[in-house]
Design brief:
α2 packs parallel to α3 and α4 runs parallel beside α5. The longest helix has 18 residues. Strands 2-1-3-4-5 form a five-stranded parallel β-sheet, with helices on both faces. Strands 7-6-8-9 form a four-stranded parallel β-sheet, with helices on both faces. Strands 10-14-15 form a three-stranded antiparallel β-sheet, with helices on one face. A hairpin with a 2-residue loop joins β11 and β12. The chain contains eleven helices and 15 strands. By secondary structure, it is an alpha/beta fold.
Length: 370
């Protein structure tokens, strides 16, 4: 993503209106700007959206912020106001309960909604989720591992709703590609409870015997992985022989501090996009954005890219779900008819300091490997 230099230029205003005399395409942005403990995240999302409008310099689009106050009632009222004021697209809300409350108002006005919730249950019927959905990254890493001659898998899955969704995706992906799943063990979130499942997996790779699997899938994030990873060498799982693979939850600073993970692979957006976006955001607002901020930037970028279409055909289901998708800060993405989203991930290898892209993200969905 290329960003326009703003040295000497004014930062985006809180509300950016179209140029004088030009018809505007109103896009409402529903966020919990007050009344919740997510105000700082909401502010960053709002600013990221404004930054996109500023970068693309499109005076045809008017962003109209609406405060949901962090409640379903507030979200419903904000959506109703957005429809009354002529919004052609709604971006947000952030939380699932707010999306559920706002969706009927948007539907009644025939206005599509691009929301930030990660709860699949609220997708569909005019609601599209731009967030990173649990399990959507799994086919990418399974496919890549198989291309590297890793065909027998074991998995350590957290006993959470996230774990349930990821396990479903893992089993479906391995079945589709013809790989073998040797064992799947689940673990509770506490460190002590992780020991037994890791030992059960370790029993399949006894010293002096051929290992029963050659790839170990460990979907996790920064709240779990630092406790789980050290158990691998403790259980005598040789990560130089067994390739450890992960999920996009591994995409956090310092993941390589765990020696057992060095050399492991995981799917994630190409880090260059986030690095460039962060630099641009800091230059503009003087603060480091939360990771979610790219969602708002990409949602507004999508709106801008479609804004020159004739009124009534800008944000139709067929336009929003076009097969070619859209290019965003986090790479290629497209919205599905069922309201979920699909992304083109890169594959990264964990290094002691930082990570290295070992396979680039696809340039188009026709070239994507899943």
């Amino acid at each position: 993503m290329l960003f326009r230099s703003i040295l000497g230029e004014k930062a985006p205003d809180a509300k950016i209106a179209p140029g004088a005399g030009k018809p505007s395409v109103k896009v409402a942005v529903l966020l919990p700007l007050t009344g919740s403990n997510s105000q700082s995240v909401a502010k960053a999302l709002k600013q990221a959206g404004e930054l996109a409008l500023f970068d693309f310099d499109n005076p045809n689009v008017e962003l109209v912020p609406k405060d949901t106050h962090g409640t379903p009632e507030g979200a419903k009222s904000a959506a109703r106001d957005a429809v009354k004021e002529g919004a052609e697209l709604i971006i947000g809300p952030l939380f699932a309960n707010e999306v559920t409350a706002a969706a009927p108002e948007a539907k009644a006005g025939n206005i599509p909604m691009i929301a930030f919730s990660s709860d699949r249950k609220v997708a569909g019927n005019g609601v599209y989720l731009l967030s990173f959905l649990a399990g959507s990254d799994v086919p990418r890493i399974v496919s890549y591992a198989v291309t590297q001659q890793k065909t027998r898998f074991a998995a350590l899955i957290p006993q959470t709703e996230y774990g349930r969704l990821v396990e479903q995706s893992f089993l479906a992906a391995t079945k589709q590609i013809g790989a073998q799943v040797v064992a799947v063990k689940s673990y509770p979130q506490d460190a002590n409870g992780m020991v037994a499942p890791v030992r059960e997996i370790a029993a399949l790779v006894k010293k002096g015997e051929p290992p029963q699997f050659d790839a170990l899938f460990m979907p996790a994030a920064a709240d779990t992985l630092p406790a789980l990873a050290p158990l691998l060498p403790y259980a005598e799982i040789d990560t130089k022989t067994i390739k450890v693979i992960g999920s996009s939850g591994w995409d956090y600073t310092g993941v390589g501090k765990e020696q057992a993970l060095v050399g492991a692979w995981f799917p994630a957006p190409d880090p260059k996009g986030w690095t460039d976006f962060t630099k641009r955001y800091v230059e503009t607002y003087g603060d480091v954005p939360p990771r979610l901020a790219t969602l708002a930037y990409d949602a507004v970028s999508l709106a801008i890219s479609l804004s020159n279409n004739p009124q009534g055909s800008r944000f139709t289901p067929s336009t929003l779900t076009r097969a070619s998708g859209f290019a965003g800060v986090d790479g290629l993405f497209r919205l599905r008819p069922d309201g979920t989203s699909e992304r083109g991930f890169a594959v990264l290898e964990v290094q002691r300091y930082g990570n290295q892209v070992v396979e680039a993200a696809p340039a188009s969905f026709s070239s994507a490997q899943y």
